[in-house]
Structure formats: C-alpha cells, structure tokens
Amino acid sequence: xxxxxxxxxxxxxxxxxxxxxxxxxxxxxxxxxxxxxxxxxxxxxxxxxxxxxxxxxxxxxxxxxxxxxxxxxxxxxxxxxxxxxxxxxxxxxxxxxxxxxxxxxxxxxxxxxxxxxxxxxxxxxxxxxxxxxxxxxxxxxxxxxxxxxxxxxxxxxxxxxxxxxxxxxxxxxxxxxxxxxxxxxxxxxxxxxxxxxxxxxxxxxxxxxxxxxxxxxxxxxxxxxxxxxxxxxxxxxxxxxxxxxxxxxxxxxxxxxxxxxxxxxxxxxxxxxxxxxxxxxxxxxxxxxxxxxxxxxxxxxxxxxxxxxxxxxxxxxxxxxxxxxxxxxxxxxxxxxxxxxxxxxxxxxxxxxxxxxxxxxxxxxxxxxxxxxxxxxxxxxxxxxxxxxxxxxxxxxxxxxxxxxxxxxxxxxxxxxxxxxxxxxxxxxxxxxxxxxxxxxxxxxxxxxxxxxxxxx
Length: 457
Description:
- There is one protein chain.
- The protein has about 450 residues and is an all-alpha fold.
- The chain is built from 20 helices and no strands.
C-alpha cells in the first residue's frame, strides 16, 4: 500500500476510522495535493458544525436572560451573574478538552462532546418557568459552560490537520464558524421573542436538540482521528514553562475574552445603559446579535491578514484600534449618544474578531520558529515539525482557557460598574487600559527591533 493510500481513511477496512490515520504529513506538498487537503477540509467542515452548536449552547443564557422579566424577580446584577457562570465553566473545561483530543482522538471526542450538549439544553427546557429558584437557574446556566470546551478541542484537532502556511486561514474559519453560534442563538431568541413572546423561553434551547444529534452523527461518520496526536501528556507542562505561552494567553484575553464577554453581556448593557430606548427585550434583541455576527465573520479575515503580514503586526494594529474603540464607547456613555455607543461597540466586536484570527496564527508560528532553530542545531526536521504541532495544540488549549476567563472579567466589570455607578463608564475605562497594555506587550515581545522572531510571528 502506498503512502498516499495509507493516509486516506476511506481506503481502509471497516473500523479503521476509529483507529485513525497513522501517516499524516501536511507540510509535504505532494502528500497535501494528493489527499491531505481533501481529508483536512472534510474534518474542518464537521468540526465547524459541532463547534458552532457548542458556542450556541455556551451563549444560550445571553439570550435567556432577556426573557427573565419581573415574574422571575432577578435584577440586572443577577442577570450578569447568570451570563458569567457558563463563561467561567467553559474556560475551565478548555484545558481538559484540549487534551481529550490527544487521549481519545479528534473524531471520538467531537462525537462525545457534541452529545454532551444535550444536558444543558434539556435542563434549560425543563426548568425555565416563573417561580424557579435563582439557585436552580445558576446551576443550569453553569452547565451550559460545557459548550465552551468544544472550541479548544476543535482548534487543537484542526491545528494538526493543516500545514503552517494555511493555519491562519484554517483556524480562522474553524473559530469563526464556531463563533457564529453566538449571533445565531441570539437571532433565534429574537425570533421567539417576536413571535411566541417572552413567556416562552424554553423554545430556544429545545430547537437545538435535533441539531446536536445531527452534529454528533456527522462527526461520527465523516471525521478522522490522527494517531500522531495521541498519548502526549507532557505538552502542557512544556508549554507552561514557555514564556511565550503566557504572553499569548494574555493577548488572547484581550481578543477572545472581549468577544465572548461582550457577546454575553451586550443585550443587558443596552437595556441598563439606555433604559428608555430599550424598554423591552425585543428591542434589545434586534441589536444584540449584530456585533457577534460581524466579529465572527471577521475572524477568518484576521487569520488571512496574519498569513500575509504576520500575526504580531496585525495583532498590534487590532489592539491600538480597540483602545480607540473603547474610548469612543466611553465618550458615548458620557454624552448619552446611542449612535456613537453602537458604533464604538460594533468596532470592538469586529476588531476582536480580527484579533482572534491573528493571535491564533501567532500560536503555531511561535513553535514553528523554535522548530526551525532546532533543525539548524541538528534535530531531525520531521521530529521538530511534530513537536511544534503538539506544543501548538497544547498552547491552543491553554490560551483558549485563559482567554475565555476574559469573558468572565468583562461580565464582572459590567456588573460592578452598574452596581456602583449605574453606568458602565468604569468598565469602559478598564477595557481601554487593558487594550493599551496589550498593545505595548505585543510590540515589546514581538515587534521591537531587538525581538528576533518578529518576521515569523
């Protein structure tokens, strides 16, 4: 059997899909052209589908809080907490989800993690009714965090399928398609509010039950395991000792943390910041989905830009522009200008999407640069490439987990700002300072004249 045949799962006997692909060489042009690209694209499509639904379930409570009217007896601070707890659990789960791919295989774990989404959707469909205790709502909202873990396992898996020159695009498409789950579930919530009304929140999670089953079935039938990713338990310890890992994690807090935090909180922010303009949940829902939609669509663009100009350069530009966007939102809050406020927040969503793509391009580039240096010192090129891929997969999980906690911080900042001052000014000022810090950090580590890897990263 030829090398190409060994790499094509469909040429194997029954049961081979579970066993996985033993020979995977995406950096080999002949291998990639013959069969690699086709297999990678197929896995990317079904990875995006599962991750998309995972994001929808994860952000489910950003929609459901809009249904919780006076009969639920929950104030604005309590609603911000309901959106913060699934963000926190999703962040915690990203590390074990990343290593579940190496332990169980990308296909196997995608099937299991997709089916696990049935738990929070069924629970939400059962408990959502007036009279339910706040503690019960908190527990059910927290369980929705399992959807946040899907991102890390999906990104770690797809990172291993694609060659270095296409990672920015592939990871951007994978993440952007997943991120679209946020505006899609918000559009679904708007549709339910506009048709059935605020008295029927259980319709939103129940819509996802058949979609979850279809996503799991598609992954089972069409995805593959890469055996080269298995049984590597040292990668996290290795990347945890790498200073670049923590730099990238901080940068991802600024990009993805902003995206998911704003996506979860924006509907509530509109209602609290501009109560006269958004005196009903339907009015807020009309605008809630727009920012996450544009940010999700911008993520592959950020990956492409990073492929062309370098992830660090694009990321620096993003953070400078995000600081300006936060300043615009702060000015709008002071003046009470809704058009200016929406413009600033829309810019933040779009820029966070671009930054998501560019920072994820930087992660594999860090280890590719180290691999080139190792080859120059005499290490075998294939060994160095495999080592770079496994470390990049581990860092994707670490940075994804730390970055998702940024969404928790965003919700906490809003909660405290509105509790103490009845406006979001303190939160907007904190965001501006954070983006300025990330700008300086990006330049200092990767772009200042003495930073040696700036051209590659």
